[in-house]
Amino acid sequence: MKLQHKKCTVCNSKFKPKHGNQDICSAACLTIRRRSYQKKYHELYRREKDGNMKELQHKQCSMCSLNFTPKHFKEKVCSPACFEARRREYQKKYYILLKNNKNCKYCKKNFDLKNNQKRYKYCSDECACKAHKDSIKYHHMLRKHKKYFKKNDDTLSKAN
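Request: output the structure for the sequence above.
Response:
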């Protein structure tokens, strides 16, 4: 089935579609159409039932305490500078706390990291030694089982 030439719904130029329901000729036209839909959606979102524009209420900036009119109802800050300051404050508050606390891999206790201890996995030397001993025991057990299974595989293959 050959596809016939169509008219682009955005720029009205003729183009050959790659599939049957394609109605836009290029990526540029696609972005134009998306922007127009976004504008229409924004207009509809801000309208009340009677058709008048709904004024967004003035808010107070959470960083500098200035009054501002938000562009979106979720906005909490008045400017990009306040946004950056709020982001940095959040990072200091939460991320640093998370980075400086770790759970011990052996005893599962929470412990604080010092400046150069980012790679530490255990809260103390005791836990590190115990974990190392346990891993050695585990590896020895695996070796025994591998040897056992290897012997059994050999005997089964000889029997067949």
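The longest helix spans residues 125-159.
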